[in-house]
């Protein structure tokens, strides 16, 4: 799934010199869209973004996102949590599950010791959802039905995919006019490529971010061919100067 907003440059003026911390003051989230599913509802339950689906006389399956705010101060070069995603897997009618859902997360932060100057960033995530038939054998995860990984029926799979371009740079200026550039990364959910949730149970993952001083990021080395090209261009330029002289 792709986070739909591209990397942008964000200039933050009038912040403290070389802000070594970041404070999150507010996080909000909403399930903005989904595909397929029956009896689908989206709601804000005391700040938790809830999505529910499925034809059933008991509990519906669903997603939650619990924002974490306020939080901080967060030190640079250290992962910190923005919120927690939860998948609730319950038995529902065949064909009544969703196939994907979109989550919008906005958070407001300030740098260093300057709470009077705050900034807001919004990220979007899409979750691909595989609502498996509970009676399949083997199950979609290739293991037998009622294997420990398929207790009570076949487990369901959730695959979060985030935008590969989630970094933003921002520059702060101190009282002497010196500027310092930081890189802010929303790193995505800490579940790898996907996870499987047992029937009748729940599974969670945290949304992580970090920020770092730009000079601490190692440069990407040029391939050897590029160095040969640069050397060749330099040689051509020198030869041209000799001919002109």
Automatic annotation (TrEMBL):
Keywords linked to the UniProt accession: Membrane, Signal, Transmembrane, Transmembrane helix
Cleavable signal peptide: 1-19
InterPro entries for this protein: Choice_anch_K (IPR047995), VPLPA-CTERM (IPR022472)
Native source species: Paracoccus fistulariae
UniProt lineage: Bacteria, Pseudomonadati, Pseudomonadota, Alphaproteobacteria, Rhodobacterales
Name of the protein this chain belongs to: THxN family PEP-CTERM protein
Alphabetized NCBIfam families for the sequence: choice_anch_K (NF038131), PEP_CTERM_THxN (NF038125), VPLPA-CTERM (TIGR03370)
Transmembrane regions: 220-239
């Amino acid at each position: 799934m792709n986070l739909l907003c591209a990397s942008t440059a964000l200039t933050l003026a009038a912040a403290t010199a070389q802000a070594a911390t970041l404070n999150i003051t507010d996080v909000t989230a909403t399930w903005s869209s989904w595909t397929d599913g029956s009896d689908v509802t989206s709601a804000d339950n005391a700040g938790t973004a809830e999505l529910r689906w499925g034809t059933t006389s008991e509990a519906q399956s669903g997603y939650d996102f619990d924002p974490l705010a306020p939080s901080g101060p967060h030190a640079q070069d250290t992962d910190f949590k923005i919120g927690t995603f939860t998948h609730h897997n319950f038995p529902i009618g065949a064909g009544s599950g969703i196939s994907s859902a979109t989550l919008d997360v906005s958070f407001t932060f300030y740098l260093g010791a300057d709470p009077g100057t705050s900034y807001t960033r919004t990220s979007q995530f899409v979750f691909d959802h595989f609502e498996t038939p509970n009676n399949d054998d083997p199950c979609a995860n290739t293991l037998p039905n009622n294997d420990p990984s398929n207790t009570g029926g076949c487990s369901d799979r959730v695959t979060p995919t985030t935008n590969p371009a989630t970094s933003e740079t921002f520059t702060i200026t101190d009282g002497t006019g010196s500027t310092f550039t930081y890189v802010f990364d929303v790193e995505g959910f800490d579940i790898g490529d996907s996870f499987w949730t047992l029937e009748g149970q729940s599974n969670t993952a945290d949304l992580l971010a970090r920020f770092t001083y730009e000079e601490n990021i190692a440069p990407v080395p040029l391939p050897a061919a590029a160095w040969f090209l640069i050397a060749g261009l330099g040689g051509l330029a020198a030869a041209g100067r000799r001919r002109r002289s």
